[in-house]
Amino acid sequence: MLQTLSITDFALIERQQLDFKEGLTVISGETGAGKSILIDAFALLLGKRANREMIREGCDKAIVEALFYGPEKYIEPNLLTELGFENDSELILSREIRTDGRSYARVNGRLVTLNLLSELSSKLIAIHGQNSQEEIYHPPAQLKLLDKFAGPEHQAALKAWEAGVMIRRELVSELKQLGLSPRERSRELELLEYQIAELTEAQLEAGEDENLERKHKKLSALSKINQDLDQFEALFSTAEDGGIRTNLQAALKALEYPARFSKKLSNLRSEVLLMSENAREIAYSLSDLRSQLAIDSESAAEISERLEEINELKRKYGDTLDDIFAFLEQAQTREAYLKNSEQRFAELQAELKKVEADLCTKAEVLSRERKRTAERFAEAMQASLVDLNLPKARFAVRISAAETKAFPLSGRDELEFLFSANEGESLKALAKVASGGEASRLILAIKSILADQAEIPVLIFDEIDQGIGGRTAAKVAQRLHSLSRERQVFCVTHSASIAAQADTHFLLEKSFSAGRTKTSSIELKAEARLNEVARLLSGAEAPAESLALAQRLLNQDEINYSD
């Protein structure tokens, strides 16, 4: 059972903890008091998408937590064991929303995926809101509802059909990969052969590009060195350009005669002679170095060409050599696959034909089981509608074979709920004949029946009393009360009859304090509960007549209603 719901900084709720009991819990309050906030809080635990607008203004996060007792009765033991909760008699489901847009899901304080939280909570809670009318009006949704009501044979037939459909989809997918036309397969094979030949002939080696890049950088550096040395040699030695050595020789000759008459000039000429000899040594050393730094132009050209070839292959097949090797492997695998495609294509077609024939048989079995389920469902609905003050109503399920050769996951059946509220009127499509009040009762009947089938322990009804009143409201109230003997039932309501049947009654109120609006809940007892039931009867401050009628409702006296 659901023991506690704790809400912090969610919408208009600042901080609220509601402790629940077994049976029927009613939640009432003025329009706009925030009853829908509770429904939204439960919806978050069921995996509803969260958004920052749900956080109370001025706060950085909102938290919703629910404490359940005895979850092992409703959740598969293997799932609890897998999660490490098999020895836990309590389960705490939690959602946290933050202003930065992030959302967290937790189970017993442990972070889990939203899908896992949804899977667990859906086995514990079912919400039936005002939008359920749309659900029961549409045939595809009706088909899903009927399948939820299914017994073991029906479920087995549905699973067999779904498994067959998935096998067929895999076969069709493989056929598409082969290409549906021999011409397309031939074109692809031709392209693959070209690509494989190009990569094979390239004879690439792992790490080859990196080695070539290093060599290329070294050659580029040598080329620059040789260019600079050419310039140096031209400045230093070339006679035509007046190089340093030539000028030194000319200088020596120019000083030869003056040095005979001056010791200082003789010493100066000796220094120039030394410079000339040093220049000659530099020239010899440069010549040796030039021979050592010479570039093999043929080898350099080969390296450049190889790098260009590799870079062109990278442009076509991948950013790295590893990518190219992976592409080659995939291409070779695909080539081998396509070379055997004719045989495989024929095998797949034969297998597909066999699977589709088997699916046609499975479709008949599923349709037969659905018709049996539909009879049981209609009988259960008929009995439930009588309890809900529709004694003359008739309900049926029409199932027919869809005019299609497709294989949808839902099967090949077309289904529609038929309804007649009054005696003498023919059965017609539910969407065409059910009024708002009748739809509310139909929803309650359907959800009650499905809850029995699924054994969900907590049922939440959001304004199931919409469009009904008088004796009908009393019948709905009795049905909810009866349903709550087997599970916890929560009902957001404006109906005094339903409120009077409650085992626990919470009133939601909106208040304004310190410049802020907030919603809070109060568990009503004795006189406070009497006043609230009377308010629901009169729609205002309770007059004496409403108080008296409210007291009779709470005492479960028989009331004569007129619709």
Task: Provide keyphrases for this structure.
six-stranded antiparallel β-sheet, single chain, six-stranded mixed β-sheet, 19 helices, alpha/beta, 15 strands, 563 residues, 17% strand
Write a brief structural summary.
This protein is of the alpha/beta class and 563 residues long. The chain is built from 19 helices and 15 strands. It is elongated and about 150 Å long.
Describe the structure in your own words.
The structure is a single chain. The chain has 563 residues and is an alpha/beta fold. Helix content is 56%, strand content 17%. The chain contains 19 helices and 15 strands. It has helices at residues 35-45, 77-83, 114-121, 132-137, 139-148, 152-178, 182-202, 208-236, 244-256, 263-292, 297-317, 321-339, 341-387, 430-433, 436-454, 470-483, 496-500, 526-538, 544-554, and strands at residues 2-10, 13-19, 24-28, 61-69, 90-98, 103-107, 110-112, 125-128, 394-401, 413-420, 428-429, 458-462, 488-492, 504-513, 516-523. It has a 6-stranded antiparallel β-sheet with strand order 2-1-4-5-6-7, covered by helices on one side. The chain has a 6-stranded mixed β-sheet with strand order 8-12-13-3-14-15, sandwiched between helices. The protein has a 3-stranded antiparallel β-sheet with strand order 9-10-11. A hairpin with a 7-residue loop joins strand 10 and strand 11 (428-429). Helix 7 (182-202) packs antiparallel against helix 12 (321-339), helix 8 packs antiparallel against helix 10 and helix 11 (297-317) crosses helix 12 (321-339). The longest helix is centred in the middle third of the chain and has 47 residues, at 341-387. It is elongated. The two termini are 36 Å apart. Mean pLDDT is 84; it is low at 557-563.
